[in-house]
Design goal:
Shape: globular
Oligomer: single chain
Structural class: alpha+beta
Helix content: 25-40%
Number of helices: 3
Strand content: 15-25%
Number of strands: 7
Largest sheet: 5 strands, mixed
């Protein structure tokens, strides 16, 4: 796993074990798809955001860079489906989603619930 900024590796290492575990899993799944993931944001605040990054509950991974996508639509769908199934939540929020925020490049946003009891128990976890 690569990091856009060197300090982001330390930021991620200081987050909850659960968030670190999910980030590692995203990395492993990406490598299985032939893509080395790049962390683009951990705790940095961005104007207009919900606050989950400064709270230490989210990690962003690059998809779009210089107008090109790293993940194919099929790879993207596979990642989203994996996390949706394995880490389904009862609060209606996804654990992983793909979007563009404020016109910035598209990326994967991996977010853990504030209350871990919000996760549905599945055979996979």
């Amino acid at each position: 796993m690569k990091f856009k900024k060197p300090e982001q590796e330390k930021e991620l290492s200081e987050r909850s074990e659960f968030l670190q575990e999910l980030a590692r899993e995203f990395g492993e799944k990406s490598l299985e798809l032939g893509i080395e993931p790049v962390v683009t944001r951990v705790t940095e605040a961005v104007s207009g955001e919900s606050g989950v990054h400064p709270q230490g509950r989210a990690v962003d991974f690059r998809d779009e860079y210089a107008g090109k996508f790293l993940y194919s639509p099929i790879a993207r769908a596979a990642l989203l489906a994996h996390f949706e199934k394995k880490y389904a939540r009862t609060d209606g929020k996804p654990t992983l989603y793909w979007h563009s925020f404020n016109g910035m490049p598209h990326h994967f946003h991996l977010q853990v619930a504030y209350d871990l009891s919000k996760y549905v128990k599945s055979e996979e976890n």
